[in-house]
């Protein structure tokens, strides 16, 4: 296997909408406008839990048989994976003659590089079975009861221009730019097969942008995903204006028959900045069926072991999301008092991340207390419960997302979520909280300098770009929106001909979703090691991403990688950094608002100096000279009229 030193994670994300920003469609068809969800009353539940549905082994076999029949009809032997909603691999089936490897697409920069060269993951051969797993997880994790996204949807929202097309050059980057580098195999949050932990599992190549990952639904409830890898090209769709007849996508859709998402929540019914998202390019409801699993097992192919994911000994049933066995369940009032909250379970009925005070007394004179963390999370959840969704159907649904709080060491002080938020938002909310805290930390520059030459070089770039030799020493508060500004291949974002941000690749012509800059370089070694492990070459990557040194608490401060799209702010106590809060799941502006306004409301409730950064040190005070034009970084951007129960506008202004 050819593997590059700077391997980067699969794009894709899709996380999709969990973080999409921009405006939704109010009434494009001219029909009746949906009635807003009523304001919660005392004792009511703003986030009813989805019904507990799961795939049976017979249904997993049916899905595989249907997909195999379509693959045979198209003469494309493939590797087909089925997962449940929390990422448990239920089956991996390798058809006879299936290509065992996939080349990470060279489409974006293929004309610029000789054939043997690689750039990040681009041009690298990866095991096709890993690609099929990442596609299946992408479909499952990006979807919910209010939105159904595919790996094609993910492709649309992670590229350098949105929507991606030759005619859209000059527009800003995709709303979930960077989400492909979540659910990483080195994440300290994601559970691992065979290690006893339950809950959301890791994706071997992160989230995928290659078509062929489709969510699966049962009685209108998302229960998993199917991923297909067969054509040998693991890429993305660089031109949303054409319509592809993608065989892998057709095979996945055939497999999903009987388990397709409800029509009204598919991505093509959801708009971002006036652009409809893409669900599939192939007809989403082809006819035909594929017989039984018994008829194909051992004849058309065989179940395939994947170390670290699946033992290959038989079909597994899915677990029902919301049960203790899924690792995600409703919180008790003692665990979190607000109605509709879900938490992660350790498998024994206990909260996996109970709310607690800061662990960073070695670095902070007065760490966050448990009561302060609880107040921050409760106030953020309250804002969440009032907010209008960006990417959910029907229109004027209530926002759903995940919320994470960390201390200055990146240690998790609490995670809570609404019942039906997309699963990808759990890992991403934690990435966001840690990223804002890390870049606002006085030790950020020193930590990056100690992480090796590939990473250390970014420190000098930032200081030169900002004309500030003290940058990354705690002099400014960086939200994820601020760091995202510095991570785009054009600065300002999307403006072709402008210089790249200092945390991006330094030649915008070589940008690829598979190599974006610092975000990739921080985790490249972990990804290379994990891919080798799945092929029997050495041990697995450690639980804890990045090469930055461990904090006094023992783990890297960014132990599941960084994130570079909005939805987080650092937390201060009387001007001293004490932690960070991150939100992900339902629109980047909404994510910004829940973190920023939730923290502000907690500061009013607490009245003890804990709250948002002083405006004087926020990153939006930083000015950059770009060709004679002065450009300011951004801090947060809240939706204009965000609430279902209040006509208030500009709710973050002046705070």
TrEMBL record:
Residues 25-55 are annotated as: Disordered. Keywords: Signal. The keyword Translocase does not apply. Pfam families: HbpS-like. Residues 1-18 form the signal peptide. PROSITE patterns: PROKAR_LIPOPROTEIN. Gene3D superfamilies: Haem-degrading domain (3.30.450.150). Transmembrane segments: none annotated. Residues 33-46 have a biased composition (Low complexity). InterPro entries: GlcG_carb_metab_protein (IPR052517), PduO/GlcC-like (IPR005624), PduO/GlcC-like_sf (IPR038084). It comes from the Bacteria. This is Heme-binding protein. The lineage of its organism: Bacteria, Pseudomonadati, Pseudomonadota, Alphaproteobacteria, Sphingomonadales.
């Amino acid at each position: 296997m050819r593997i590059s030193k700077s391997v980067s994670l699969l794009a894709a994300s899709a996380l999709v909408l969990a973080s999409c920003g921009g405006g939704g469609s109010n009434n494009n068809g001219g029909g009746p406008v949906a009635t807003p969800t009523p304001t919660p009353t005392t004792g009511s539940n703003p986030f009813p839990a989805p019904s507990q549905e799961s795939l049976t082994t017979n249904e997993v076999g049916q899905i595989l048989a249907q997909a195999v029949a379509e693959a045979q009809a198209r003469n494309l032997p493939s590797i087909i994976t089925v997962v449940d909603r929390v990422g448990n691999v239920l089956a991996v089936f390798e058809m006879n003659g299936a290509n065992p490897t996939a080349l990470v697409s060279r489409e974006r920069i293929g004309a610029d590089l000789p054939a043997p060269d690689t750039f990040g993951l681009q041009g690298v051969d990866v095991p096709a079975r890993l690609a099929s797993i990442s596609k299946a997880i992408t479909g499952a994790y990006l979807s919910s009861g209010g939105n159904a996204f595919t790996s094609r949807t993910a492709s649309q929202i992670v590229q350098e221009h949105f929507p991606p097309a030759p005619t859209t050059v000059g527009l800003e980057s995709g709303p979930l730019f960077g989400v492909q580098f979540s659910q990483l195999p080195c994440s300290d949050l994601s559970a691992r097969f065979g290690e006893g932990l339950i809950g959301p599992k890791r994706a071997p190549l992160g989230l995928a942008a290659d078509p062929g990952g489709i969510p699966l639904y049962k009685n209108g409830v998302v229960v998993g995903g199917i991923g297909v890898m067969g054509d040998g090209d693991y890429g993305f769709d660089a031109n949303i204006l054409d319509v592809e007849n993608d065989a892998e996508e057709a095979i996945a859709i055939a497999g999903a028959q009987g388990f397709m998402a409800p029509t009204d929540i598919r991505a093509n019914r959801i708009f971002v900045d006036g652009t409809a998202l893409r669900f599939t390019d192939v007809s989403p409801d082809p006819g035909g069926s594929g017989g039984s699993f018994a008829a194909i097992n051992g004849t058309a192919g065989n179940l395939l072991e994947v170390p670290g994911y699946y033992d290959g000994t038989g079909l597994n049933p899915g677990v029902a999301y919301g049960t203790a066995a899924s690792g995600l369940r409703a919180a008790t009032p003692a665990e979190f008092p607000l109605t509709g909250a879900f938490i992660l379970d350790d498998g024994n009925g206990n909260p996996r991340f109970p709310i607690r005070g800061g662990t960073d007394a070695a670095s902070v004179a007065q760490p966050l207390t448990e009561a302060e963390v609880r107040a921050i999370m409760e106030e953020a959840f309250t804002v969440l419960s009032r907010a209008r969704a960006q990417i959910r159907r029907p229109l004027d649904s209530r926002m759903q997302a995940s919320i994470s709080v960390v201390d200055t060491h990146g240690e998790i002080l609490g995670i809570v979520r609404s019942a039906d938020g997309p699963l990808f938002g759990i890992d991403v909310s934690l990435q966001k909280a840690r990223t804002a805290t890390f870049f606002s930390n006085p030790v950020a520059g020193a930590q990056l300098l100690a992480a090796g030459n590939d990473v250390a070089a970014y420190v000098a770039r930032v200081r030169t770009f900002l004309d500030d030799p003290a940058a990354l020493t705690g002099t400014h508060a960086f939200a994820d929106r601020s760091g995202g500004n510095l991570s785009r291949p054009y600065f300002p974002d999307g403006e072709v001909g402008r210089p790249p941000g200092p945390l991006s690749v330094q030649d915008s012509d070589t940008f690829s979703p598979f190599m974006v800059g610092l975000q990739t370089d921080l985790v490249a070694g972990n990804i290379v090691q994990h891919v080798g492990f799945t092929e029997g070459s050495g041990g697995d990557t450690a639980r804890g991403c990045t090469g930055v040194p461990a904090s006094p608490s023992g783990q890297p401060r960014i132990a599941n990688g960084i994130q570079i799209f909005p939805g987080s702010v650092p937390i201060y106590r009387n001007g001293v950094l004490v932690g960070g809060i991150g939100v992900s799941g339902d629109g980047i502006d909404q994510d910004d608002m829940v973190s920023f306004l939730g923290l502000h409301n907690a500061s009013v409730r607490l009245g003890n100096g804990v709250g948002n950064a002083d405006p004087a040190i926020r990153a939006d005070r930083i000015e950059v000279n770009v060709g004679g034009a002065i450009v300011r970084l951004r801090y947060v951007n809240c939706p204009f009229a965000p609430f279902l129960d209040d006509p208030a506008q500009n709710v973050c202004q002046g705070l």
